[in-house]
Each structure stands twice: as structure tokens, then as C-alpha cells.
User: Fold this.
Amino acid sequence: MPRKRPGRVRTKNTNRREALKLSSMAPEDYNVRPGEVKSIACPDCRTWRRIMGDKVLKIREHCISDKVAEGEKHTTCPGSDQLVELDIDVRRWQVKQDRLLREAMPQDNRRAAQQFYKPLPAPAAPVSRMNAEITLESARQAYLAHRTRHVGRGRSVTQPQGCTRCVGGQHCPDGEILARRFVLALQQEPARREAREQMERQEQRTARQQSAPAVRKAQWAKHGGPAVEKANNRCTERTSGTVSEFRGPDLPMLPQDIEAHERRQAELGRQYEQYARKAPATSAA
Assistant:
């Protein structure tokens, strides 16, 4: 879409008046919307005229009479070539004008007179077009049920009679969909079988991993114990102070200074007796 260029100011003449500020005019007497042609209501003749120029804005030269074609004299309006100063915030002006337009709109236009109801649900798709989980057996049974159906009267059932439009290699629209679905399932069956086998192997591997700690515990209970520890001690030379790798270093069970240990225990006993005598008095207070 070609870009709209602003009108060119072909003259430097003005009407020698002070520049007309848009802030001094009514907001509805001019149009400076972005993307639209700038226009203004001439203050002298009160007719809408175009604002020319891009940087220097002027009211386009116009005639004061609208009957020049009928022979009247051409009289230039005094408001021609009037300088215009854009001293307003265009965005705020546009928001205010949009609000005024909405408020001035009649109520019948703002609110729809027609009542709109929720649309009715679409009819269910036929069975042959349902996107359910398709297996080789289900596709085969659906195709055979379409090609062969038993007809009869009462309890007596006659010979199977297939779809009247499915003859030989020709299929009706539903039969063609079912046949294509059966062939597709037949082609995808090896990949599905491989996927099922892989899933089963993964489940077995997961079960073995979960039961591994219990299996190792049972094996250690069956084959472990002092016999394994004794055999391990015979294979490897032990360092001083170490009984086995299974039980760690041979730690002393008795204190090194027995007299100091007994004195410490006696002192702790006396402290406990003093604390036991003071406890009832403290609780009663």
C-alpha cells in the first residue's frame, strides 16, 4: 500500500496572523489522528479544510463562497494560509475523542438487539471415523463386520450378506476407510510388537533392580558370616590392631587408667545425689 504523503505547502505567504494554537480550540474542531489527513474547521468560515505541510502547518487556501461555479465572484477566505501550531498531546486527545464517540453512540448501537444463543453441538461422528485406539484385531473385526453381516427373519439366520456397495476390490466410503485402517494397522504391527517387547524387558529390568538389595541380603545371610570373615583373614595379612575389614579396628573395651575412671564415676555420683536433694525444694517453690 503506498504511503500517504502530506500535502505540500506551495507558498510561503501567510495571512499575517498569529499562529493558531490547537489548545485554544474545541477538541472536536480539528482532526490530527495518526495515519489520517489532518483537517480543521476554519475559524472564519467554519468549513472543514485541510491542514497542509509536515513541519510548518497551514490551513489550505480556500474560497469563502461555495457558488463560484454558478458565476459568483471568487473571494478568498481570510483564514487561508493560517499558521497552525500543534501544541497538544495527540495521544491524550485521541483517547478523549474515542471516549466521546462511544458515549455519543445511541444505546441501540452499543447493545445488540438480537439474542445470541449457544450453538447446538455437532452430531457425533460415525463409528468408522472415530479416532479410538486401533489394534490389528479391532481393525480386522471392524472391516469384516462391514463386509459380512448376517441377515434373517426371526430366529432363522440366512447366509452372510456383505455391504451391497462393497463388491470385489471396490469399497464404499466407509468400507474404504476401514480397509485403509486395517492395512495401516497391519503395517504397524511389527513396530508395535517390538515396542511391547521392549517395554516388557524394561519392566523386568526394573523389577530385578528393585529386588537386588533383598537378593544380596539373602545371599549374605546364606553364605556370609564368621566363615567368610575367617577365610578373608587367611587370604590377607592383617595390620596390627585390626581384626577384620568387616568389623574394623580392634578398639579397647576398658579404660586405660582404671583408678582415674573410678574417681570420676564417684564424683559424678555425688553430684547426682546433691541435685536429687535440691530438686524437690525447687519444684515446691
